[in-house]
Amino acid sequence: MARSDRTRATLLDRARALFWARGYSHVSLREIASEAGVDVALVSRYFGSKKGLFEETIHDLPSIDAAQITDADALVEAAVVLFTEGDHNADQPSPTTFILHNAGDSDVGEAVRRVFHQRWQTPIEQILRDKSQAARFTAAIFGLSVAEKTLQLEGFDAKSGEGRAQRIRAFLKASLAPTDQAESPRTSDGTSPAGKP
User: Fold this and answer.
1) Least buried of 18, 75, 109, 197, by fewest C-beta within 10 Å?
2) pTM surpassing 0.90?
């Protein structure tokens, strides 16, 4: 690999780690260049701008393949793998972390949301054949991600261990419950909170 290719790859790797972990607006080009061990001017040479560099990292967002994941059970299992076997090291943040930190950014949020919809949401909708159910499933994935990474909820074990996959699976399957069941919580005696059967 030529030196220029190595430099470009190193810049991209460091930018991905920082942008995905902290968000576009919270990372400077100087910081990326410093971590890559190169002059900041090389960002312009290889990527044109900070935004150009960021957009290159979006290409690394994995896709959900609706041709291989053909039903709700397979989709749940793919999501369980994301949480139990995915790369959880701080140097290479997860795709959910990337989306959470960048989808609302005023400079790059539109591009992130567009790619998210193309690579995740549209395939989930194709698999589930129901936009409302797909939205609930996606909300469950991101809710789990927030709970794991930031909320430190007592009783929610974010670490790997026996039963973790089963808890995640149960949570995700519950998000796929028909709307009338999901919106009609029951008390311990089997009645709805309003007292109706």
Assistant:
1) 197
2) no
